[in-house]
Amino acid sequence: MSLLTVLHYPDPGLRKRAQTVTSIDESIRILARDMLETMYAQRGIGLAATQVSIPLRVVVMDLSEDRNAPQIFINPEILTTEGIGEGEEGCLSVPGFFDKVPRAQRITFQYQDLDGRLIAAPAEALLAICMQHEIDHLNGKLFIDYLSRLKRQRLRKKIGKAERDPAPVL
Ligand code: NI
């Protein structure tokens, strides 16, 4: 098992479009396992391979309270959407920043599991939001892209300042 490095905005690697996984082999199983370990270590609930510099369509999640229900989605795709809601989101690639993002309330989606089986499922609430957020990652899109220009400018300033003038780490 190994921890992977999570890219932070504005790293250009986050803008790459991930490729379809054509063969679910041992390397994909290892990637999914390492992604889960990385996600748990950083206390995230979802992680897309794009965020760890691997341009493949692999997503992991654990939406359970007890952090004991890992899920792996290969080549996830949204099939239908219904309704519009808004929930507060954060992202391991935009640390310390949270804001409301409009998302479809209910979706149906499909994915492959580690055995290559194609599965279609409905989703609502947190799973629907997380699936939309992670599939956006695979397409090079971040949740902050949905915010107003003003809010994004403020965020860029804040991040620019943090990079020029890092707080002491004690
Ligand atoms: Ni994210």
Question: How would you sum up this structure in a few lines?
Answer:
With 170 residues, this protein is of the alpha+beta class. The protein is built from three helices and five strands; from the N terminus they run H-E-E-E-E-E-H-H. A five-stranded antiparallel beta sheet has the order 1-2-3-4-5.
Keywords:
about 170 residues; Peptide Deformylase; five-stranded antiparallel β-sheet; 3 helices; binds nickel (II) ion
Could you tell me the mean pLDDT? 94
CATH superfamily: Peptide deformylase
Assembly type of the chains comes to single chain
Give the number of DSSP strands: 5
**Approximate shape:** globular
* CATH architecture assignment: Alpha-Beta Complex
In helices, the fraction of residues equals 25-40%
Bound molecules: nickel (II) ion
> Unreliable runs, pLDDT <50, ≥5 residues?
none
Distance separating the two termini: 28 Å
Indicate the CATH topology: Peptide Deformylase
Domain module tally? 1
Sequence-ordered SSE layout with sheet pairings:
Elements: H1 26-41, E1 46-48, E2 58-61, E3 71-89, E4 99-112, E5 118-124, H2 125-138, H3 149-164
Antiparallel strand pairs: 1-2, 2-3, 3-4, 4-5
Nickel (II) ion is lined by residues 91-93, 133, 137.
Describe the structure.
The chain is an alpha+beta fold and 170 residues long. It has one domain: Peptide Deformylase, CATH 3.90.45.10. The protein has 3 helices and 5 strands. Strands 1-2-3-4-5 form a 5-stranded antiparallel beta sheet. Strand 4 (99-112) and strand 5 (118-124) form a beta hairpin. The longest helix is centred in the first third of the chain and has 16 residues, at 26-41. It is globular. The mean pLDDT is 94. Residues 91-93, 133, 137 line the site of nickel (II) ion.
